[in-house]
Amino acid sequence: MAKTSKKAKPKPKPRSIPSTNTKTNTKTMTSSSQGLTAGSPDAEDAPHSQSIDVSFTFTSGIGQATAVLFRKGVLINMQSISKSGNVNFSEVQSGDVISVNGICAGKANVVINTPTTPATPEQFNSGLIISGYLIN
Amino acid sequence: MTGKISVLTVGLLVCLSVPVVAQKKVANPVLTADSLATGNYKDVLNSFFQLAFERMTSPTKELKFTGTPFAVMAKLDTALLVDTLYTRYRTLRNINYTFALRLDTSFKFDGFASGIKYAIINKRDETVSRAFLELVKNNAKAKQLFALNDLILAKISAMANPAPAMLEYTDFRRGIKNFNALSQPLRDTILAVAASSDATRGLGEALKRNSNFNLAETADSIYNDLRTNFNKNLLWTVGVTDTTYRNQFVFSNIVIHTELLKGLNKFAETKNDVELNIRSALQLTDDTLQLKRDLKRAIFSFEPGINVAIKTKHTQKSWLEIKFSGAYYYNFSELYANEERNRLFFNSTIRVRIMNNIWVPFEIKYDPKNGNLFGFINVRANFKALHGAAKQL
Fold first, then answer.
1. Where is the signal peptide (chain B) (predicted)?
2. What share of chain A is helix, strand, coil (3-state, %, to 5)?
3. Which of A89, B33, B102, B163 is the most exposed place for a label (fewest CB within 10 A)?
4. Nearest-CA distance from B358 to chain A in Å?
């Protein structure tokens, strides 16, 4: 009996584990995740996910800031901004935390367009911006 | 007339000084304070407005208002303060204009003065400097604070009930609570996450050593130290000032001047600032030997000096400044009787800060050849907006 050569099905590839390097550019970008594993929380197709904007307004001087989205201890997304404008996180869930680090030479106003703990807008005087918000 | 002018003078000074006090109670939502700058720096180039009552004890007193065109524009349109527009007006912020009323001993009008000054080099304006932001961003202590914030927030996001921890941590990062005022579980969490990373290990040790650690005060201290050092950078201005006669709107005096200011102890771990201050001017005045009014008398002056600013330990605000300078004068014109072509003076200015933005400089001039000693007392108020403007912004 002739053997039929059967093409082996390729094994499903494991989800890639991106680098732990979380260095950002000064321009808006999406970063790789920190320590993201195959078992990490996935925002794809989550029915309760929402798109949110983190809005930065720098006045009386320039500023820059980096917003990082954490979910269950894992870095999901990181974006930086170097002038007034918005950072958008497309898939955000209740219980996620957004960290905001930055510097403003004048004043800075941070607004997130969804209810958070603590509530926004929050204003910062000239200096370091060190803050964080829990998505309600 | 005398009474009116003196009442007007005192009234104007008091009215414009009121917002300086009031701003402590009502936070200005937009304009930033530059009260950390030395009084000498604010005399060379003002950021917003300055009102000065100069030579109070001299026969010729002067009530002087200094402003920048940008400050007026920003008052009329606060959108100009948003960074995307703010950075476009660097030139206008480097211009100072001055208007002054000259008064005689009985406070009678004795002429009008005006002037304009431009900062050719202004490396002190941190509000538009990307290099300054990078300096702060790359500071080792600032990096540790940023890293700790990320690590703690990542930890909070993994908690089953994150809201109470987030509220408590918010109080900590805002400086409302010191480290030792936090609950034991949060303190332990912060110490654990700080110890888990090389980026924050040093900060974790600092938290263990100092239980009164205040995150907001630490962050402010890091930023203010860097800003203070940045404000020691080079500033070079040029300008022209003119004065009219009391009875005729014709120039009696024109001064073309230049001034340089540079900190000498940048990044030194000393408490006090030492600044190099060099002034030079060419003064054109009326030659009184001639019947006609003219500007044929030319006097050149050169005044190098050192300004020492003594600062408070924690807030780093200078409260006393002492400036020593020499002054050389050369007269290019025909000399009057008993007048010398070259003159040399030793000057000293003592500036005392009596309120947050109000300085009282006392100037002493000594003529070593003739043994003459002259003294002038001034009052200068640096303020950010005219009365009520801060509330409107």
1. 1-22
2. 0, 45, 55
3. B163
4. 22
